[in-house]
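Handout, page 2. Input:
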Amino acid sequence: MAGMIPQQMIDEVRQSTDIVDIVSDYVKLQPSGKHFKALSPFTQEKTPSFIVSPDRQIYKCFSSGKGGNVFTFVMEMEKVTFPEAVEILAKRSGIDTGKYIRKREEQDEKTENSLLDTLRWAARLFNRTLESEAGRQAYAYLTGTRGLEAATIRRFGLGFAPESWEHLLRAAEEDKVPMEHLTGLGLLTRHPQRNTLYDTFRNRVIFPILTIGGQVAGFGGRTLSHDPQTPKYINSPESAIFEKSKLLYGMHTAKNEIRRQETAILVEGYMDVIALNQAGLTNAVASCGTSLTRYQATILKRYTSRVLFLYDGDNAGKKSMLAGIDILLSERLTPWIVMLPGAEDPDSFIRNYGKEAFLEELESEKSSFQDFQLQCYRDSGFMDNPDTASKAISAMTRSIALIADPVQKELYLEELSKKIDLNRQTLRKVMTASSTSGRDPSREPYGSRKSDAAPEKPTSENKPLSVPERTFLEALLESTFYGNEVLDFAASHETMFHLDNPAAHATFTHLVNRFREMGDRDGHIDITSEISSIETEEARNIAFDILFRLPVNETTRPNPAEIEQHARRCLSHFLVAVKTLMLEPLQKEKQAVLGQLQSSTEKPEQKQLFTRLHDLNNQLRTLDQEVSASISTILGRE
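Output:
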């Protein structure tokens, strides 16, 4: 939440605002010791349970369980988002927010331009490498095995990353390219144990993925290795620049032809687009190896109203097209489907049979989305019995319901009525029911008709906060008032901790991630602001409840010795809580085994249980000793 607006702006607004003044605008506060109290603004009550702490600048409502700071209070009362709450409080305090927004926009634009420069640099490096001696094998693969012409390779800016751990790294050091850009864009990867950098793309043909405007946004890499353990394709990781779900490969070269022909050919892979383009079919684009997304459909809608689906004919491809049909229809696009014979894809078909045969195949095998749906459900056996047939029909009528044109909708309904021999009145009822029932389960089992699927595991959303988890969070939150020592330890040993409660886990991971994002920034984390930006309400309420109950330091300005004393106490409490959390799973299993022993009457079973109990006691003793020794070592170093 906080990341949407500048942190400096949030800090100034918070420092210029008193929670007592803000809350007083909504409820009548009465002094109560160091706090203020009032009737809850969230529930109907006769005895005040709403408490405001001016020392901590937070509130706690004991009747509703809600807690927070000045931002979350305004969010609750005004029903606004976090950024809107900051704006409201900024105006109330007379703070000019425009200076922050302008500065943020300038910084964002500068950062984006710098990242785009880095991507262009990498694309040129990969391309030069492909055309050098180091890329001879990759170039032969593209021109020989894949049948690409030199002009096509240049047109799509193809490149090569050699089988080296430091090819791009060394070039970047020589050209003084920022390492943080290369790691952020996924071109370099950091080794978790050695803390060293190495090239992400190795021994791969590189496909630059461009935006509609022709800017390099990311890369796809196709391995030349024959190792079955090596992924065939990898892509740049998601970033502010590269969002795979919002890009269509080849769109920058295909957009004008798509508009001219009023049709887009939608394929799965990079090579499919390139092969079709080389054959003169320049209106082809690919969904970057993923199922079609709504955002990609909206891009297509800018240039055409017709899409020719040409995915692979295996079950995965058919399932993707079934899902994509609804996405296209919901964006007012008309989908047509072509299934190539056998295991052919557009790239292999054109290489094997040529352009003319491909065009003939498109013309003869093109079917409406409805015919394709019906054929898929028939092939998978869904139309063989009434139970599964009703699900398939529900899915098809749901697709019809997405059509915006009422005449088209009626015609498709009539066509379906003829094809499955069911009257339109019945289909219309099914369509109304299926279009309002939310998720359609008939889409999920395509290609598999198992009816004995395992039930979903129960969630732990309502799992209560255990005493060890609460102690753990108390020590963690309190420690932030005295520095980053505990957070630093937690971030370095995150895998040690197992928190069953989702809210406790969300609070812990949020604070650890925010601490990592701070890097080496001076000062310690502002705990009330960080809690208010936790995504889940349950986690925020639990964290604020803990924070509200923590003791307030009586010293206005504690001296360094007092701060160190408090910090050591927090670290000690935290480590004890960690120990309890680590021992808890074994303790629970021990109690379960003891329970089984009490009810067991069979001697062989009793013998097994006694053996397990003996093992658990040994494990508990060993783990207790090891963790206690580690705690003593850590505290002794401090």
